[in-house]
Write a structure and sequence with these properties.
The protein has 9 helices and 9 strands. By secondary structure, the chain is of the alpha+beta class. It is globular.
């Protein structure tokens, strides 16, 4: 879609683009699934604004996928938003974004997450304070090096038009953010994460957000196509459900977006839409040494994938394991 150029923040253009992004991603995921369709849950927020939470359930490829659009307002920023910006305490605010999580049925297809957002605080007697944020990250259970490399190459390609320094900076930020400190492991193999971005003005920030939002499908759909029909059994399914538990732990313990939504009186059903439909916990689980399940641990530590893709793992294909 054609977007107007402006030297000052154009929140109407952001709103229009984000709404269009949600529709395009839902349509692409429906085509990839081939059976299920997204429902639509349109809601309003008492303090102002609202959104559309769209969920696909029990598809041929995707067990559940949630793609939410929101444009919400509040009278006072919650503590999670002002911890790093105490000068904005008490300020009214507006937040727009698209957030999505895809939980595939086949354990060989990774879980994927993406988010792009625009935030504006309106402190009294001051100009609005605005910034962009976003990113995408990948959480495989049975990782393939070619998938991880494709993911990171696409992430780098999205950032490069805005500066060669951005991909390594946002990749490192992603590694640090999506890290389960209580487990001492990463949530997955990373990707991009950025926040509070306003370097170079509104148009540059808006352009970067669009590139990252558009890049998600380019990064994810080829992986889905490669792995969607790979045979699996109960062992792989049980391991997938167990590892989904880590995803739940991160979202409920560490994720700032979840905390912001709950602290600001957000809509609980939409905030927790990212959680998987099925999951299991097992106390003290240890994978069999040398197994495909044990192999995952080597991927759950930050690494410069595009410089050192092999790391120190000897087996690059989970099919080579038992």
């Amino acid at each position: 879609m054609t977007l107007p150029m402006s030297a000052t923040p154009d929140i109407h253009a952001v709103h229009a683009w984000l709404g269009d992004l949600q529709q395009r991603i839902c349509a692409a995921l429906e085509r990839a699934d081939g059976e299920a369709a997204f429902g639509s849950d349109i809601w309003e927020r008492a303090e102002g604004g609202g959104g559309n939470s769209r969920v696909l359930r029990e598809g041929a490829v995707f067990e559940q996928a949630g793609v939410g659009f929101s444009d919400v307002r509040g009278a006072t920023l919650p503590p999670s938003a002002t911890a790093h910006r105490p000068d904005l305490a008490g300020a009214p605010w507006r937040a727009l974004g698209v957030s999505l999580v895809v939980h595939p049925r086949n354990p060989y297809v990774p879980t994927a997450h993406a988010n792009v957002r625009y935030f504006e605080a309106l402190p009294e007697h001051r100009e609005p304070v605005w910034w962009f944020g976003g990113g995408f990250d990948l959480t495989p259970f049975y990782p393939f090096d070619e998938d991880v490399l494709h993911w990171h190459r696409t992430a780098r390609a999205a950032c490069d038009p805005f500066g060669s320094d951005l991909y390594p900076r946002f990749k490192r930020w992603c590694d640090e953010y999506f890290f389960l400190k209580h487990r001492n492991e990463a949530r997955g193999v990373g990707g991009l994460f950025f926040d509070d971005f306003r370097d170079g003005g509104f148009e540059r920030g808006f352009g970067l957000m669009r590139a990252v939002g558009d890049g998600f499908l380019d990064a994810y759909l080829p992986i889905v196509e490669r792995r969607r029909d790979r045979p699996y059994g109960e062992r792989e399914r049980e391991f997938q459900l167990y590892r989904r538990g880590r995803y739940v732990e991160f979202n409920l313990v560490w994720d700032r977006g979840t905390l912001f939504g709950l602290q600001s009186g957000g809509r609980t059903e939409s905030i927790l839409m990212s959680l998987p439909p099925r999951v299991r916990w097992e106390v003290g689980y240890v994978p069999e040494p040398g197994s495909a399940e044990a192999r995952l641990a080597d991927y759950l530590r930050p690494r410069d994938w595009l410089e050192d893709p092999a790391g120190d793992h000897a087996n690059k294909n989970p099919a080579s394991q038992g």
